[in-house]
Amino acid sequence: MGQNTKTVTESSFDEVIASDTPTLVDFWAEWCGPCKAMEGPLEELAADYDGKLTIAKLNIDENPSLQAAYSVMSIPTLIVFQGGEEKRRLVGARSKAQLASELKDFTN
Question: What kind of fold does domain 6-107 have according to CATH?
Answer without folding.
Answer: Glutaredoxin (3.40.30)
